[in-house]
Specification:
The protein is α/β, with parallel strands linked by helices. It has one domain: Arginase, Chain A (3-Layer(aba) Sandwich), CATH 3.40.800.20. It is built from ten helices and seven strands. A seven-stranded parallel β-sheet has the order 1-2-7-6-3-4-5, sandwiched between helices. Helix 7 links the parallel strand 3 and strand 4. Helix 5 crosses helix 6, helix 8 runs parallel beside helix 9 and helix 9 packs parallel to helix 10. The longest helix is centred in the first third of the chain and has 24 residues. The radius of gyration is 17 Å and the shape is globular. This is Histone deacetylase.
Length: 302
């Protein structure tokens, strides 16, 4: 298989320190960088983003919440909703992740494809974080690019196993920033925040069933919207072994999904930027390998 060099963003701050035994697999970010290097996907090294500043992040979030995160002074109630303590390292990680998604999006607009080895924090809503998500990096990036005039219409293709409630909330009232979420209907969050197009799947759906839904809905949606840029949340938690998923995709099914989404963008000449989204497994090596699939697909289709 011929591979092309696709720009990939990584920052050491993507991996923050969490208490031993925490159920969020923070180590996956650093391990993913190691896997991408070992597989030859970054022959010239990673590009390092500038962390997002408060003004940038406030495009998508209430300023009081943004300032609280930057000061590592988030209330205990909000921290419980997020799922971990927001210390200086977690705050730095969230800034770097938002900056990485925006930088990757700009590179995608210039080169056709790019990705960040983090991002996809789609549960963070305008008023605050939720579900292991501090800042909604995709919403921040989409709003920043639209403000700059770099894009008019954007399509967010969110294939994480959980519905993108935060992205729907942050981009409500933004008809040119369209959110598609295909997720396990009975999974978190409950209740959901309606997006532009939400497709809830039944528990246990396998590779073939998932692919059938994707093929039936995505191509016509892209043609209808004709976006200037696609953000792709390539969450790997639809995998059958994921601790927080309810679907039954295999590694091969995830890889085929990624190739299909990227191929749809490439065949239309639409730039695409990928973020890694969710994935929860105690086997961090296996988890990092699943997250690497989308970068392999971009390299093959570039």
């Amino acid at each position: 298989m011929i591979r092309h060099v696709v720009p990939i963003l990584f920052h050491p701050a993507y991996e923050a320190a969490l208490p031993e035994g925490h159920r969020f697999p923070m180590r996956k970010y650093g391990r993913l960088a190691e896997v991408l290097t070992a597989r030859g996907l970054v022959p010239c090294g990673f590009l390092r983003p500038e962390p997002a500043d408060a003004d940038l992040i406030a495009l998508a979030h209430d300023r009081a919440y943004v300032d609280a995160v930057f000061a590592a002074a988030v209330s205990p109630d909000v921290e419980r909703t997020i799922g971990f303590h927001v210390d200086e390292g977690v705050a730095a990680r969230s800034r770097a992740s938002s900056g990485g998604t925006l930088a990757a999006a700009r590179l995608a607009l210039a080169h056709g494809l790019a990705g960040s080895a983090a991002g996809g924090s789609h549960h963070a809503r305008r008023d605050g974080g939720r579900g292991f998500c501090i800042f909604n990096d995709v919403a921040v990036a989409a709003l920043a690019l639209r403000r700059e005039g770099a894009v008019g219409r954007v399509l967010i293709v969110d294939l994480d196993v959980h519905q993108g409630d935060g992205t729907a909330d942050c981009l409500s009232g933004e008809p040119d920033l369209f959110t598609l979420s295909i997720h396990a209907e009975r999974n978190y969050p409950i209740p959901k925040v309606p997006g532009d197009l939400d497709i809830g799947l039944s528990d246990g759906l396998d590779d073939a069933g998932y692919r059938a839904v994707l093929e039936a809905r995505l191509p016509s949606l892209i043609d209808t919207i004709a976006p200037d840029l696609i953000f792709y949340n390539a969450g790997v938690d639809p995998h059958r072994d994921d601790r927080l998923g309810r679907l039954s995709l295999t590694d091969e099914g995830l890889a085929a999904r990624d190739r299909f989404v990227i191929g749809q963008a490439r065949s239309r000449g639409i730039p695409l930027v990928s973020v890694i989204g969710g994935g929860y497994d105690t086997d961090v090596d296996a988890l990092a390998g699943r997250h690497a699939l989308v970068f392999e697909a971009m390299a093959a289709l570039a």
